[in-house]
Amino acid sequence: MAGPLSHIRVLDLSRILAGPWASQNLADLGAEVIKIERPGTGDDTRDWGPPFLKDRKGKETHQSAYFLSVNRGKKSVTLDISKPEGQKIARDLASKSDVLIENYKAGGLARYGLAYDDVKTINPKIIYCSITGFGQTGPHAQRPGYDFIFQGMGGLMSITGERDGEPGGGPQKVGIAVTDVLTGMYASLAITAAITHRERTGQGQYIDLALLDTIVAFGANQIFNYFTSGEVPRRYGNAHANLLPYEVFATADGHVILAAGNDSQFASFCNAAERPGLAEDARFRTMPDRIRNRVELIPLVRDIMKRHTSRDWIARLEAANVPCGPINNYKEVFEDPQVEHRGLKIEMPHPLSGTVPGIASPMRFSETPVTYDMPPPLLGQHTREVLTDVLGISEAEIEQLAARKVI
Question: DSSP states of 1-15 as a string?
Answer without folding.
Answer: ---TTTT-EEEEE--
